[in-house]
Amino acid sequence: MNHSTQGEQNWWRGAAIYQVYVRSFADGDGDGTGDLAGVRAKLPYLADLGIDAIWFNPWYPSPMDDGGYDVSDYRDIEPVFGTLTEAEKLIEEAHTLGIRIIIDIVPNHCSDEHPWFTAALAAGPDSLERERFWFRRGRGEHGELPPNNWRSRFGGPAWTRVTEPDGAPGEWFLHLYSSRQPDLNWTNPDVADEFEDILRFWFNRGVDGFRIDVADGLVKADGLPDVTDPDGPLPYSDVDGVHEIYRAWRRIADGYPDRRIFVGEMWLPDPARFAMYLRPDELHSGFNFDFLSCPWDARRLREVITATLATHAPVHAPATWVLSNHDVTRHVTRYGRADTSFSFADRQHLAPTDRELGIRRARAAALLTLALPGGVYIYQGEELGLAEVEDLPDEVRQDPVFTRTAGADIGRDGCRVPIPWAGDAPPFGFNTTGTAPWLPQPAEWSAHTVERQTGDPDSMLELYRRALRLRAGRPDGPIEWLAGQPSGVLAFTRGDGFACVVNLSPGPVPLPAHREVLLASGPVTQTLPPDTTVWLRI
Ligand code: TEU
């Protein structure tokens, strides 16, 4: 069985899913911000690339305090991006091209401009409106201290004090992210009902699945206890009750005759806890951040791949493979550094990076990733070999991570710079009006445009195109490691006749016996050079 003959119902198990950060993908109306018109115009590009589905970052109305992860209306489209009618057309056009649509749902928190939150502020303490959030009186004599010691993931305390309708300093509300993203209270049945209805709203409009933002965070430990050990279990992450929510969501998805799916975003330290979300009556899949965070090292990668497959096997869920997304440093940059791992604790901003090495490894990593069993996520621009933009001026940075940490964490703007499509100067075809994009593009991106790379057999884009095409038709068997390989080499087969070999050692290594080189990430002869991957027919 290969991907193309897999049952329609199982499309998600081996899908190549392309992540579109709408704001930065393509600007159809020429105002400097990407939009749905831009995406619709580029659907043929995505179809030609060979992807199976698109995951859209949040496209809902939003004050854009956190790039749309601060939602003010879950049943509409951000006006800067377009309209609901346009979204419906986009879904239909994508389906016509054989591309499925996954959208982001943000159930942990909403925007402070969401009508529920403005109503809660207005209604005052002890109101039913406040029950939909986490309002608490402060500690200290006059309630001047936050209710507990939780920290926002964007820096600073996780609580902000409000001014009550009578003008007096009042209660505090919880926000695990920015102070403009109040956490919803999932013990309140209003919240569960509302999100179940939102799921149906979009499923009824043809959406094929949801990526669940902060999927582990919805349920908080009873009594909101202080964090006592930051390395131990956290009272706001992976609390057992969360699974009930996903069982209910799964019943809704399974109520549709064609397959609708969920992919959870859970950054969890314990793989066994992670797998619990992927039990047959919960989420279909989850992002594999261990693979994303892993350094470019043969032993470590093999450990992560083996552990990932072992984690997923008991729950019969397919693994996913991710190298980059809108939250992390682009892997071309990471892979060119001395320390090639990723960690939120230290983005290694401006650590020296060897661009050529980064590109070579990114090419090799692409073929490794696309050879593994399960689903794969490709973040927009990855197929163009874009690097992190590390020299953005402070005044253009928009990520609340940057402001809330006073620049101690540079934030995520550097991986969100608008895509270069064509031409020799900004905006590189991002729009046709010449309007400056919302984040400035580096001049060197003239070498990375889709136009420049199309038809160039050595380009990253053509590598992705060929790899995705071959991937769709290749054997889909389980992975088996090839024995007797030199150290620093990852080599495995997938079913009959297909092998993938990655050389992470410092010198060239001999190729295993083969009948044909199907595809290589760099020049190969009888030997495989360092930082190169080859796909073989054996
Ligand atoms: O991210 C969840 C999350 O906690 C991290 O990935 C986050 O980016 C990091 O802690 C920042 O330092 C998700 C989204 O992917 C992210 O873009 C949102 O900002 C966040 O949720 C809040 O909705």
Give the key terms:
538 residues, alpha/beta, TIM Barrel, Oligo-1,6-glucosidase, domain 2, Immunoglobulin-like, eight-stranded parallel beta sheet, five-stranded antiparallel beta sheet, 13 helices, 18 strands, 25% helix, disordered N terminus, binds 1-O-alpha-D-glucopyranosyl-D-fructose
The number of distinct structural domains comes to 3
Under CATH, the topology of the largest domain can be stated as: TIM Barrel
**Which sequence of strands runs across the widest sheet?**
9-8-7-3-2-1-11-10
Sequence stretches where pLDDT stays below 50 over 5 or more residues: 1-6
CATH C-level class of the largest domain: Alpha Beta
CATH superfamily membership of the largest domain: Glycosidases
Biggest sheet statistics: 8 strands, parallel
Which term fits the overall shape? globular
Task: Note the total helix count.
Answer: 13
- SS elements, strand count: 18
> Mean pLDDT across all residues, rounded?
97
Gap from first CA to last CA:
18 Å
* Helix percentage range: 10-25%
CATH architectural label of the largest domain: Alpha-Beta Barrel
Determine the structural class based on helices, strands and strand pairing: alpha/beta
* Beta-strand residue percentage: 5-15%
Bound molecules: 1-O-alpha-D-glucopyranosyl-D-fructose
Radius of gyration: 23 Å
